[in-house]
Design goal:
The chain is mostly helical and 319 residues long. It is built from 15 helices and no strands. It has helices spanning 2-24, 30-52, 59-86, 95-103, 107-119, 121-146, 162-173, 176-190, 196-206, 209-222, 226-230, 233-257, 261-272, 277-285, 290-318. The chain is globular and about 55 Å long. The protein starts with a helix and ends with a helix.
Length: 319
């Protein structure tokens, strides 16, 4: 599996370079890239999740799903605790951006292509469960975090009353990925399969996941001033927490739990992925340091090309 993921990382890096080239020749601009990101999040990823659940029922799959949901919750709670301890709020006006980046992984953009290449549809099934937990946490805890000002107080205005915020939160939780996961689970337990023609059409769309995700990431990297980014010491701290500390702790937990290897691999890859693109979107929406968030995203994405294979190698040896 280590050799498979190395080859997959090389392929993804080459596609990322195509994204960089598309930015520099002005084939894709920032507006187009946002549209592609929406297409990936709203259409392609949900289709991948639904199609992964078009599997024959088995107790082992159900057990793996339950483990993925349970460990997804525990992992996110633990990442919140660790990031709060290691990234202090006092005197740090960008603490919300840094904590969000350290807590939440790019398990959709990067995780699904990697897991799909290593473990196939069964791995996608488990990472879809992890992503459901990610969406719930990022749109509740993450949203609350990013709507605080630099002193730690929630931003408030006349339009942000409790009722409107609750309605907005409910709307945000009903994301295509969560709805697709629910639909997929219903179809899975009822053993309802799509007709072959429809299934083939959906699989064609789902196959866009890897190239589309990496082109989007490449365009984001191309917009980053890399020399200036490398001079910012706190980027290294946040990236260290996200790419080394968090997955290392989960790796030790997985060693103790002795879970089925497919489930363990999937959860480890999901946690080892770089910082979530959602953090950059939130930073833009809630007037945080968008440029800094983009730099963390780009730097962690590049570093993950080394750290993710390392953890997969360790998993292959020990899990």
């Amino acid at each position: 599996m280590f050799s498979i993921i190395i080859l997959q990382i090389i392929k993804m890096l080459l596609i990322l370079c195509i994204g960089i080239l598309c930015w520099h020749i002005k084939l894709i601009d920032e507006h187009t890239n946002k549209g592609l990101a929406n297409l990936l999040l709203m259409v392609v990823n949900p289709i991948v999740a639904v199609m992964a659940l078009q599997a024959d029922y088995s107790p082992d799959l159900v057990s793996g799903l339950l483990i993925s949901y349970g460990l997804g919750i525990v992992t996110h709670l633990f990442m919140i605790l660790v990031s709060n301890l290691l990234i202090r709020e006092k005197g740090n006006k960008d603490f919300a951006v840094e904590r969000f980046a350290a807590m939440y992984s790019n398990c959709g953009f990067i995780g699904i292509p990697l897991v799909q290449s290593i473990l196939g549809d069964e791995g996608v099934l488990y990472i879809a469960a992890y992503m459901t937990i990610f969406n719930i946490f990022s749109w509740t805890h993450g949203l609350s975090l990013m709507t605080k000002d630099s002193s730690g107080q929630k931003q408030s205005d006349h339009s942000s009353r409790f009722a409107s915020r609750a309605a907005a939160l409910l709307k945000n939780l009903l994301t295509p990925m969560i709805l697709a996961s629910v639909l997929g689970l219903v179809l899975f337990f009822l053993q309802i399969k799509f007709p072959p023609v429809l299934a083939d059409a959906l699989n064609y769309v789902g196959n866009m996941n890897t190239p589309l995700a990496m082109i989007i990431a490449g365009v984001s990297v191309a917009q980053t001033n890399i020399p200036a980014m490398l001079k910012k010491k706190r980027i290294y701290l946040v990236t260290l927490i996200k790419l080394i500390v968090m997955p290392a702790i989960l790796f030790l937990v997985l060693l103790v739990l002795k879970l089925p290897s497919t489930v363990a691999y999937t959860l480890l890859v999901a946690a080892a992925c770089p910082c979530a693109a959602t953090g950059t979107a939130f930073a833009l929406k809630f007037q945080k340091n968008y440029a800094y968030s983009s730099e963390i995203y780009a730097f962690s994405t590049l570093c993950s090309l080394i750290t993710v294979p390392f953890f997969v190698y360790m998993a292959e040896r020990l899990l």
